[in-house]
Write the structure tokens for this entry.
Amino acid sequence: MEGPFAINQRKSARYSTCMPNLFTPITIRELEIPNRIWLSPMCMYSATDGMPNDWHFAHLAQFAIRRVGFLMTEASGISPTGRSTLMDTGIWNLEQAKSWRRITDFAHSQGSKIGIQLWHAGQKGSTTSPWQGQDYVAPESGGWQAVAPSALAFGKLPAPKALDLEEIQGIINDYRHSARMALEANFDVVEIHGAHGYLIHSFLSPLSNKREDHYGGSYENRTRFVKEVVTAIREVWPASHPLFIRLSTDDWVEGGWRVGDSARLASELMALGVDLMDCSSGGVQTGVTYPVGPGYQVPFAKEIRASSQILTAAVGMITDVAEANRIIESGDADAVMLGRELLRNPNWALNALSTLHEKVGEDLATKWPNQYLNGRPKLKLGW
Ligand SMILES: Cc1cc2nc3c(=O)[nH]c(=O)nc-3n(C[C@H](O)[C@H](O)[C@H](O)COP(=O)(O)O)c2cc1C
């Protein structure tokens, strides 16, 4: 299915290089990202009033300095009540956009590109942080009423309020407004958070969406909300700028949202202007056992990429340089997103340059930031 936004960039991104490796740049629409090592979005629970601060600057800047080619911010609320906690970052006003701008400017100064993940936490809204127990914060204690497609409780949290049609429209408008603010902040990419049991995922999954109106029931109805969100964002997000979506591509539950649904949705979203699917999984229900292990979600990225032709990012327990490079070389995915491994080892991309120096060539392998050149390891290349 080809629509006005499913332009040729994805073809050039996928087919211009015979065998890309971790350090092959990728062009999506008019954005060139210098390599395939990307920072996965990670909530820091360290903001006040949604404002990114010095913590967020230092956290994201360290990866730009260390040659991570693309940074995805933590999930950032499209509204105060779209957050999961009071400490989440947001992107619903110009003041926040201005604060983000300091971070995007620095990322750009280092040659990295940067995107913002837009989210509405839905059924998982209004809690404390993970290190405070992720307990519900009631409205009388400064929290808010969580909302979802249906009034089904998630784990220990109280049942959310089922959204009415006017509220759904309001949230779609919030997404559009946040995309405008993301442009003010000079982000290169917007990623829609459609994973992990948050609002969009809970519309998609038949496990959490029990609505009887035109937002529930059939596949067409359950996917209506995300398509309206994509359409609203594309009204204001320039055609030159890529739009990504992170999806829980499989619920790992019989009768839930499955990878085949994700592949079908990928084709439909491409026609609406989505360029890349960031392939995560799970999170819509408690009590599910996940087969967690190295690269366990990579087959989803591979299957969706092959059947829909969308660009994909693979994520989840990718830690080994050779394996990460294999994912790119074999065409399982177009990029790898690293989360916890980059927290443990922020120099991962610099070390990968050394490990892959024969593949990437001396020019690139020796290209450390000038300020860090003295720390560069000796390779076999005679320098
Ligand atoms: C501290 C932390 C915060 C996270 N926050 C987000 C988030 O804001 N948005 C999101 O989509 N995923 C979030 N995740 C999931 C990661 O992006 C990633 O998908 C997951 O950790 C698996 O990848 P990894 O094994 O490389 O860490 C978070 C994970 C961690 C550890």
